[in-house]
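ok posting inputs for the nicotinamide-adenine-dinucleotide job
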Amino acid sequence: MNANQEYSFFQSVERSFDKAAKFTKWDKGILEQIKACNSVYRMRFPIKRDNGTIEVIEAYRIQHSQHKSPCKGGIRFSDEVNQDEVMALAALMTYKCAIVNVPFGGGKGGIKINPKNYSTYELEKITRRYTAELVKKNFIGPGIDVPAPDYGTGEKEMAWIVDTYASLKPGEIDAAGCVTGKPVTQGGVRGRKEATGLGVFFGIREVCNMPAVMEKLGLTVGMTGKRVVVQGLGNVGYHSAKFFRESGAIIIALAEYEGAIFNPAGLNEEEVFQHRKKTGSILNFPGATNLAKTGDALELDCDILIPAALENVINSDNANQVKAKIVAEAANGPCTPDADDIFLQKGILCVPDMYLNAGGVTVSYFEWLKNLSHVRYGRMEKRFTENMNTKILHQIETLTGKEVEAGERRFIMHGADEQDLVHSGLEETMISATQEIMTVWLSNPEIPDMRTAAYVSAINKVATSYAELGIFP
Ligand code: NAD
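and the output
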């Protein structure tokens, strides 16, 4: 815990859980079981650095719940990794999967390293050794526990994991399903990379399309012209910014750990990303004003604030200065419980992480299904649909004597490919989850905020699942 944090991350999650549990009918024993972290694997292993020295690496894999199999959750590479953090993230995965109706238990992994301080070869050795440790203890497998990318990891690490797993489990036909977020050439699914950011967009778009909610916040319905601030230009932040901008919102500020930039006329995330790649900093972007601290961006006057970097960035110290109408939790745990209380007083709508950033795990679920079925989405029906659409169009043109314009023709004839189906499944998931949570919230005027409503929804689903398993007579 640092000076800014009132509670450890796991305590914050437990506190939110307890707040919501009061609105459910489950007895104490079941609630305690849902809250508990079932399995904690803390490991240490050595690696030889490129300079010949030996370093001992600290790492974790934590399975919060096994009410559904496999467990699911990303692997984080960060200096800040500790047991409490991984436990909290694993717990959030349990609730997240329940909310978006993805049939997995919750898990999470972490390796306490700053990947920027290691060569690619060293990172490969660490990732492969970590995977071997998980195999030894039966903590990984398509039916046991399926990791994915998180902060500091991506496709490359997932490719090393699947390769290590497959080589240690020769003949396992479903080996590709041992991890998700893989490159497409290694069994990944098209649409995974942008999934979390796209899910954030679908979730907030749904909220912004609810007239009663917008009226209460003093905002207009829809996305056009909404002023958006994004903290973190990594995978989630970059793609969130992209989809918001493409839908007509204005990205007025972007923040990275070295500072932030502000331009009320709007920023283009790709141009800023290229600028940062070239100069090593987000600052001094042409046409934008520099803000000295990343935290300054969180306090800008805007409609939607998207923290998409790390946890606990909005807390009792700065929540009072937040001027956004909607806080969209793209990162895991960016707002502390004290920040939640302040938002409630100020009438700020906080859309909670545990469902809003579920796009990654939703598409991971699609990837896992693809791996188990051994067939690419769309392979069976794409041509059939296109042939059928061509025939229907031809019939319509013959009967009406008119011709459809070329662009429209391509659109109508198009049969869904893998990316179309993945995006469509994600859109459906995020819309349904938003509506489900809103229904729970509206059904009980005592439920104070959307996070509590999301927890109530998750607790009911996980508890029902435990009850159906018959563990609790
Ligand atoms: P990432 O490593 O791709 O990007 C994180 C970015 O945040 C980096 O560019 C980093 O420089 C920046 N950053 C770090 N500290 C900062 C600070 N103090 N201020 C401003 N910027 C800072 O990670 P990611 O995958 O985009 O994950 C971001 C968050 O989203 C994490 O909380 C993660 O748990 C959560 N999340 C990720 C996924 C996913 O699919 N990747 C899914 C669900 C949730």
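notes: The domain at 189-377+428-473 is CATH 3.40.50.720 (Rossmann fold). The first strand starts at residue 39 and ends at 48.
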